[in-house]
């Protein structure tokens, strides 16, 4: 994202040309910040220029177009062409944030209005809208209105023909968790009204739920108070789904409780502000529960459902009763193939070292590294003590060397053999890899058979994927088969933190071998995951599925505690219209069903995923998200409705494909060739050409007397470059080198 920050830096420099109404300059940074920014710029682009809230940018290729829309500033004319373009952050007029928290997820809707304050009305430019999502955020849709043009996202089948195969710059993921759209040819001074919807997982820690939303707006998006009145509006609802008291723990913004309706709470904040929010939105709450608790929520089938079964969700909370955690026998399986070299493997090593230090007396451990070969820290499980942990750390420093290929089955079998003789501990395997292998289907089937044969003593298998080349659906399915936890890191900077969160969640089991007695009352009972996972002290348990028949008023969840005593929890069955389960659970359902469809190659299951995806506007591996452009001036309302009902595309509609919204099913070729995963980027073929930037044209021209090489070395020309090139051209003409002169001045033309 260094290129993005540099483009914004260039845009801010260009915006200094602006003179706002009344002869006022653009907003200045807070006292002391300008000095800090200048110091940071000396060592490269300032990372604070990256978006920390939904933003809009003018994409400027012609600096001469930069001016105030209504009152010309009469700045000196600027020559040249910017390639790549500069990004000028647009001033925001209003913002409205709505957050709905239900069970373990939050659905977010953000509405905002920007104006193209930096382009004269006689000119046009593209506008790029960028939305930072939370770590586990998924975009659900967007609508944009500019004048008499409207844009909205839709999900369609992959097989549908797109007449307009758009460039990658049109929209999609700029990087993981950074969604963007590009709206073309916006007239200077126009308003851009946008609505974005996304879902994200609630964070859970020590009995407290919290939601965090990027909401830090930089000073340069604040219009001057004399120009616009800034109104900030935030609405939040909390629906725990259970008849338990909800306790407010903290909020970043001054929310006021407006009402309570049963288990549902409403909060509201609306005020005129001098500056837009300078901090992320954070809200935390707890559901009062002294011990394990939960419930079963049901939703009757509708005509929209992919089958005629009713939907259920079993939700269990670990409570705040400080239940004892199972003693553990853990084996870390770490991929050390050649593609892991550099920061990925270093971050993994630090995370595993920290995880080892968090094991306690009475636990056992071992470490296996794998590439073409297999290496173990010890030939058996080691008891946890300071000496053993120190020895393991030294062993990792010596043996975590990235080289060779990828073979998952051999180390997995070795780990299960190591754990076959453990007693009085919960056996756990933690697999970390960045690659995709040929025998993934066989690995799942073999592992499932092995675990079934071992029964309740079978090891839990948790999987972690790094980057975009591994098959995340294989890893998700393997974790589902192993009653473990799956997670992933798609950016290098998040590897260590995500691995530790994953390990702490998976290693804090307080109830194991959970079963539900509802099956005895029903004609059909199907869980979306392969098995019901264990309950962790660090995470609520949410299990969804379908059923046919009539559930009793209460059902029982049974399991075993760390002292191997059986526990039974009575769960009340209820239908809450305030919690639309199909909306709350759709992302989880699509991910699990896609993993099942991948393993079974079941086309009927793929069709179910497609139907779920299109109905709920959530992209999947079998669908595409597009941006549909409609000219409101030319489309008659009745005609528009008829076209929608028939699924037809009108003459005044354009469909633009959005890129980068799929994980894919792994890249075996990249794994075999040991290509280093492009963390934080798209696949190499999908690099964002718009953000590539030269290192400075002038120095290259000065250092190179071959004029054609100068042009090829840098694809960007500013005023100084133009002057210098003209001087070189004149000098070459004087020396009689007319051919080179033509190459420089005319780009190789014969004129």
Automatic annotation (TrEMBL):
PROSITE patterns documented for this protein: VWFA
VWFA domain: residues covered: 329-514
InterPro entries according to UniProt: VWF_A (IPR002035), vWFA_dom_sf (IPR036465)
SUPFAM superfamilies from the UniProt entry: vWA-like
CDD domains in the record: vWA_interalpha_trypsin_inhibitor
Highest taxon of source: Eukaryota
Protein name stated in the entry: VWFA domain-containing protein
Provenance organism: Miscanthus lutarioriparius
């Amino acid at each position: 994202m260094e290129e993005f920050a540099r483009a914004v830096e260039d845009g801010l420099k260009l915006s200094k040309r602006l003179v706002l109404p009344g002869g006022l300059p653009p907003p200045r940074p807070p006292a002391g910040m300008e000095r800090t920014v200048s110091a940071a710029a000396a060592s490269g682009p300032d990372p604070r220029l990256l978006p920390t809230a939904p933003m809009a940018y003018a994409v400027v290729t012609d600096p001469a177009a930069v001016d105030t829309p209504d009152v010309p500033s009469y700045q000196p004319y600027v020559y040249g062409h910017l390639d790549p373009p500069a990004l000028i952050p647009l001033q925001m007029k209003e913002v409205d944030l709505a957050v709905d928290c239900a069970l373990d997820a939050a659905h977010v809707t953000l509405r905002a209005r920007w104006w193209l304050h930096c382009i004269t009305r006689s000119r046009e430019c593209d506008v790029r809208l960028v939305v930072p999502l939370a770590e586990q955020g998924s975009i659900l849709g967007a609508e944009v209105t500019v004048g008499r043009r409207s844009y909205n996202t839709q999900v369609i089948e992959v097989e549908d023909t797109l007449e307009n195969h758009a460039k990658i710059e049109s929209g999609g993921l700029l990087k993981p968790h950074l969604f963007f759209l590009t709206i073309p040819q916006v007239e200077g001074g126009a308003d851009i009204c946008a609505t974005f919807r996304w879902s994200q997982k609630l964070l859970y820690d020590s009995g407290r739920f919290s939601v965090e939303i990027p909401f830090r707006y930089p000073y340069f998006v604040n219009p001057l108070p004399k120009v616009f009145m800034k109104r900030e509006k935030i609405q939040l609802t909390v629906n725990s789904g259970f008849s338990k008291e909800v306790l407010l723990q903290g909020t970043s913004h001054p929310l006021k409780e407006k009402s309570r309706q049963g288990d549902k709470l409403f909060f509201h904040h609306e005020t005129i502000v001098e500056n837009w929010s300078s901090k992320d939105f954070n809200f935390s709450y707890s559901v009062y529960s002294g011990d394990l608790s939960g419930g079963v929520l049901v939703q009757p089938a509708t005509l929209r459902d992919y089958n005629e079964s009713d939907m259920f969700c079993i939700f269990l909370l670990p409570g705040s009763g400080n239940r004892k955690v199972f003693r553990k026998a853990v084996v870390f399986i770490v991929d050390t193939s050649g593609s892991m070299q550099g920061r990925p493997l270093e971050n993994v090593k630090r995370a595993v070292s920290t995880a080892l230090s968090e094991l306690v007396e009475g636990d056992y451990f071992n470490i296996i590294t794998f590439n073409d070969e297999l290496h173990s820290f010890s030939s058996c499980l080691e008891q946890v003590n300071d000496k053993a942990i120190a020895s393991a750390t030294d062993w990792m420093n010596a043996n975590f060397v990235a080289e060779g290929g990828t073979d998952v089955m051999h180390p997995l079998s070795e780990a299960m053999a190591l754990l076959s003789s453990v007693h009085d501990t919960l056996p756990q395997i933690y697999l970390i890899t960045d690659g995709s292998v040929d025998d993934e289907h066989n690995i799942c089937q073999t592992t499932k058979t092995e675990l079934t044969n071992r029964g309740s003593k079978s090891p839990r298998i948790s999987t972690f994927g790094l980057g975009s080349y591994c098959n995340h659906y294989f890893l998700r399915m393997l974790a589902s088969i192993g009653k473990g936890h799956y997670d992933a890191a798609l950016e290098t900077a998040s590897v260590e933190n995500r691995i530790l969160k994953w390990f702490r969640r998976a290693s804090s089991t307080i109830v194991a071998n959970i079963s539900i007695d509802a099956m005895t009352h029903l004609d059909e009972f199907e869980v979306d995951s392969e098995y019901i996972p264990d309950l962790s002290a660090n995470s609520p348990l949410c299990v969804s599925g379908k059923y046919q028949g009539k559930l009793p008023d209460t059902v029982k969840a049974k399991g075993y505690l760390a002292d191997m005593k059986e526990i039974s929890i009575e769960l009340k069955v209820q239908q809450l219209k305030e919690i639309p389960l199909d909306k709350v659970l759709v992302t989880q359902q699509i991910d699990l069903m896609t993993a099942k469809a991948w393993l079974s190659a079941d086309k009927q299951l793929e069709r179910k995923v497609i139907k779920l995806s299109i109905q709920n506007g959530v992209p999947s591996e079998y669908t595409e998200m597009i941006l549909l452009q409609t000219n409101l001036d030319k489309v008659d309302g009745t005609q528009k409705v008829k076209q929608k009902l028939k699924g037809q595309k009108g003459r005044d509609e354009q469909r633009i494909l959005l890129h980068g919204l799929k994980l894919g099913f792994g890249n075996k070729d990249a794994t075999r060739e040991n290509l280093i995963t492009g963390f934080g980027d798209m696949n190499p073929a999908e690099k964002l050409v718009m953000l590539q930037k030269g290192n400075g044209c002038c120095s290259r021209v000065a250092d190179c007397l071959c004029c054609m090489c100068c042009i090829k070395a840098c694809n960007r020309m500013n005023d100084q470059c133009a002057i210098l090139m003209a001087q070189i051209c004149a000098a070459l003409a004087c020396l009689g080198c007319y051919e080179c002169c033509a190459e420089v001045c005319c780009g190789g033309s014969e004129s």
